[in-house]
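step=encode ok
step=design start
structure_in=
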């Protein structure tokens, strides 16, 4: 019989904390709690109690468990947890989850479509975080994940993400694990150390608690339990509640402990009849079920904590009726229970039960059963179902068949890697390599290491491969491996390693390389050469030649993805020639993506086309198209990238509110998902947002965050200097500092190939140098020769500089025309447009052309409203220098219509203007404003001059029209 306590004993503190955390989750205070304890100490019992109490508070509960059967099945506990709730209620119908449906389809089969996007782990984690937030929004929710010591690496990565971000949600994450050395324990301890989670480690029961537990199991008071029973349980169980219950059950089953007239009494000698260990307890209980049931449970134990019935039946040779009879007997004895997550699977009630059965078996018996079971499983299926190759491999290892196990693990690792689970693939391939280090397995392991970000170890192991290959297909595979490592090294900016890998690939392929290998390697080498030191023009020419060759081969040989890689690089290189050429390459990517169903490449092309469109015209319509396409695909990463790409255009177009909103919305997800490239773009854009408003402190804060995340020098250098620091210096009226920043940006750009062309070299730097008198027509003509000077952001500054040069050359008509063209180009960039007005006006005052007072009033109004005091003050000073009245910043100025503020109308003049609409004479206006008629006459004269009206009647009519 099975004995179990109806109450939890000795866990009052743990239950109190869990209850408090459940209540907290219901009130919006999310938390993560880890329960870490040996088998039998009550982790599952505490989890059950937590689930019961959460249910009692009306809280949804999601529950999943990792399994020792098929330990490398990615995301098993999380998928089971989501299914445990949604199989009854169905997925939530929330529009907020729309961008995450594709990623969530990993857990929710109903949401699977024909989309080909395979979500990354960070996408899965963010999507699951959003789902939990929706589920728990009203009442909170409890997510229970058990036995994480058996969890796969992908699950642990997602769980770590949840742990670090669950505080912002109404969610309690409760995870259990054994204290054995494993990644789950490392996660629990590190999370507790950084205070992202709480760690509970239930201790063994004290002798008093063992007495209480025994009494609860026997449904009696502690005082009535025989002392010898308590002594034996205290000695043998070592405070383990499960062992207490097992030993107590054995005492009762053997007849040594009996209930007589309502009280428990000893009916035999405990030393002779009671087992000394739980192993013996389980063995005795199994013996009573008969020999065939015992044999069946031995096979099940060899299979693992969970086991499939078809395999059990095939190995045992039992017919359906006999099999079900033995299963029913073992279930009635509470040794096994049906697996709620998998049909036709069973699980041992407790891990110690399976362990005990294995311990009592002789090694030769375990080996024999393992081999027979493995043979049977492979005979049942031509292709083993998901998770079975790992299980069969474990059986082969148990039976000593290591090479066969290595083949199974390596094949499973390759399939897992192809499915996007690089960490589980790495674990499988690493173990396969340890069992049988063949060159094929080593090559697959190196590939997985590169995919998993462990580049240094991959580069170390690649040296263990034989330097030459015998067969052509082997040579191609080896060369592809070196190409992948070279690309990974380029992305990590380890250029020396990349060079070495490219050389190895070229050496292996020799002169007779196949087209696919040649094209792939050309693209990688082109990217590498673009980043290497040396003559800039020569590097660009070589990179262009290699990329073109790769594109031609890929197009001829029908290799669409390789072609897209080459066209993408060619588009970036072509920017210096003109954006029409760059767009032509991107349109080819777009066409190929549509033809060959490459949705990620389609979005990439749309985004790049959108960026180019903005650079040429200042519009963002195509960027919005790319964002919609990413949302339709369901890619969180690509969708986030399109969002991030809008931040910089919003800043440049002066829509600071929209820029702040999109950057704030993107900062947290990019940080959580550790998407460093996008995070750095957000940080650069935040620095630009502050700089373009003259907020140096905020700019410096953003740049500090950028430096902390970059670590190494990056192409952001020119953006920081030219689009942030130089602009901020100009808004502080410090042209000398701006010139220094722009000079440094130019020096960096000349030494490093770049595809960023807005950082001053082709526009702003020319204007600053012309204003200072350090540049003339020669510098102007040199900049204009570059196609990138026609980009709209650059063009405005070039035209402002041209206007100044014409004015200095005594050509006022040409100067005015250039100025008007500059204002038209700058129409979509209000901050830059008014900064240009302020800089040109100063030169126009000196050279005597144009309407500098009009320009300065408009600029002063803009910068005053934008709270950029240095430029506003400079505009007022220049107005006085030009002999025009400077704006008086008095209370009530914000009530003046923009059209009148642009004319320089003062607050008092506007008061007179308002009264003119009713035709009162000077006397009437003077009386109402408590000023003299002569003062009114002066204000009217000033209004006539500023607004350009011929007489008082026309001015009065204008007042009635404007104020209507």
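sequence_out=
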């Amino acid at each position: 019989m099975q004995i179990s306590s109806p109450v939890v004993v000795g866990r009052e503190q743990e239950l109190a904390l869990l209850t408090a955390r459940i209540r907290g989750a219901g009130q919006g205070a999310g938390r993560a709690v880890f329960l870490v304890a040996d088998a039998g100490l009550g982790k599952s019992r505490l989890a059950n109690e937590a689930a019961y109490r959460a249910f009692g508070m009306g809280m949804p509960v999601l529950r999943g468990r990792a399994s020792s059967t098929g330990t490398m099945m990615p995301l098993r506990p999380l998928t089971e947890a989501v299914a445990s709730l949604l199989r009854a209620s169905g997925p939530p119908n929330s529009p907020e989850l729309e961008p995450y449906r594709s990623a969530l389809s990993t857990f929710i089969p109903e949401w699977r479509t024909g989309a080909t996007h395979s979500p990354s782990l960070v996408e899965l984690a963010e999507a699951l975080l959003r789902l939990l937030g929706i589920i728990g929004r009203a009442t909170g929710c409890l997510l229970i994940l058990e036995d994480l010591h058996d969890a796969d690496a992908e699950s642990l990565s997602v769980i770590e993400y949840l742990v670090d971000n669950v505080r912002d949600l109404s969610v309690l994450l409760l995870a259990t694990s054994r204290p054995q050395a494993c990644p789950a324990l490392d996660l629990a301890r590190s999370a507790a150390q950084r205070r992202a989670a709480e760690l509970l480690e239930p201790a063994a029961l004290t002798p008093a608690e063992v007495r209480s537990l025994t009494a609860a199991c026997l449904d009696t008071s502690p005082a009535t339990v025989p002392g010898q029973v308590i002594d034996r349980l205290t000695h043998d169980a070592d405070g383990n509640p499960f062992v207490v219950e097992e030993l107590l059950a054995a005492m009762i089953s053997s007849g040594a402990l009996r209930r007589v007239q309502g009280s428990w009494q000893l009916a035999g000698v405990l030393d002779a009849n009671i087992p000394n260990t739980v192993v013996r307890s389980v063995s005795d209980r199994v013996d009573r079920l008969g020999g065939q049931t015992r044999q069946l449970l031995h096979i099940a134990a060899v299979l693992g904590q969970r086991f499939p019935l078809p395999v059990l039946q095939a190995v045992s040779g039992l017919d359906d009726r006999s099999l079900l009879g033995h299963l029913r007997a073992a279930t009635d004895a509470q040794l096994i229970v049906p697996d709620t997550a998998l049909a036709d699977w069973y699980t041992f009630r407790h891990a110690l039960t399976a362990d005990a059965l294995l311990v009592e078996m002789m090694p030769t018996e375990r080996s024999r059963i393992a081999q027979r079971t493995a043979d049977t499983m492979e005979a049942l299926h031509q292709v083993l179902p998901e998770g079975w190759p790992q299980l069969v491999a474990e059986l082969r290892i148990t039976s000593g068949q290591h090479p066969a196990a290595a083949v199974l693990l390596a094949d499973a690792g390759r399939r897992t890697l192809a499915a996007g689970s690089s960490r589980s693939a790495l674990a499988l391939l690493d173990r396969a390599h340890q069992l049988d280090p063949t060159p094929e397995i080593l090559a697959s392991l190196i590939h997985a290491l590169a995919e998993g970000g462990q580049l240094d170890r991959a580069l170390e192991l690649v040296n263990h491969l034989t330097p030459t290959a015998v067969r052509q297909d082997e040579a191609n595979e080896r060369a592809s491996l070196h190409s992948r490592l070279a690309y990974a090294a380029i992305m990590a900016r380890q250029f020396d390693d990349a060079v070495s890998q490219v050389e190895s690939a070229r050496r292996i392929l020799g002169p007779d390389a196949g087209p696919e290998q040649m094209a792939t390697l050309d693209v990688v080498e082109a990217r590498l050469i673009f980043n290497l030191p040396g003559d800039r023009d020569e590097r660009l020419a070589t990179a262009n030649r290699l990329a073109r060759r790769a594109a031609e081969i890929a197009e001829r040989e029908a290799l669409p993805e390789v072609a897209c890689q080459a066209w993408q690089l060619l588009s970036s290189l072509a920017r210096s020639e003109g954006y029409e050429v760059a767009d032509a390459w991107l349109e080819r990517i777009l066409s190929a993506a549509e033809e060959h169903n490459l949705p990620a490449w389609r979005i990439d092309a749309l985004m790049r086309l959108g960026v180019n469109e903005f650079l040429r015209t200042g519009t963002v319509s195509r960027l919005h198209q790319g964002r919609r396409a990413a949302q339709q695909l369901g890619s969180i990463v690509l969708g986030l990238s399109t969002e991030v790409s809008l931040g910089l255009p919003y800043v440049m177009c002066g829509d600071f509110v929209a820029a702040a909103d999109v950057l704030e919305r993107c900062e947290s997800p990019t940080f959580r998902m550790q998407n460093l490239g996008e995070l750095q773009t957000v940080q650069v854009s935040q620095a630009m947002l502050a700089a373009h408003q003259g907020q140096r402190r905020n700019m410096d804060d953003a740049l500090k965050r950028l430096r902390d995340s970059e670590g190494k020098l990056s192409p952001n250098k020119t953006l920081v200097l030219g689009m942030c620091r130089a602009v901020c210096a100009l808004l502080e009226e410090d042209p000398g500092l701006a010139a220094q920043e722009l000079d440094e940006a130019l020096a960096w750009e000349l030494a490093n190939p770049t595809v960023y062309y807005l950082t001053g070299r082709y526009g702003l730097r020319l204007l600053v140098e012309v204003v200072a008198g350090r540049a003339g027509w020669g510098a102007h003509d040199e900049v204009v020769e570059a196609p990138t000077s026609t980009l709209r952001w650059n063009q405005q500054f070039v035209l402002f500089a041209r206007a100044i040069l014409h004015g200095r050359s005594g050509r006022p008509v040409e100067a005015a025309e250039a100025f008007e063209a500059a204002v038209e180009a700058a129409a979509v960039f209000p901050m830059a447009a008014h900064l240009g007005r302020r800089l040109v006006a100063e030169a126009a005052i000196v050279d005597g052309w144009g309407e500098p007072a009009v320009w300065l009033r408009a600029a002063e109004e803009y910068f005053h409203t934008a709270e950029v005091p240095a430029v506003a003050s400079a505009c007022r000073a220049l107005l006085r220098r030009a002999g025009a009245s400077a704006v008086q910043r008095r209370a009530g100025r914000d009530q003046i219509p923009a059209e009148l503020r642009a004319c320089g109308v003062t607050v008092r003049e506007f008061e007179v203007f308002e009264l003119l609409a009713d035709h009162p004479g000077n006397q009437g206006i003077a009386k109402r404003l408590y000023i003299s008629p002569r003062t009114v006459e002066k204000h009217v004269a000033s209004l006539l001059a500023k607004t350009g009206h011929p007489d008082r009647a026309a001015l009065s009519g204008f007042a009635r029209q404007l104020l209507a």
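step=design ok
step=annotate ok -> Strands lie at 31-36, 61-65, 141-146, 171-177, 198-200, 257-260, 263-266, 306-308, 336-338, 345-348.
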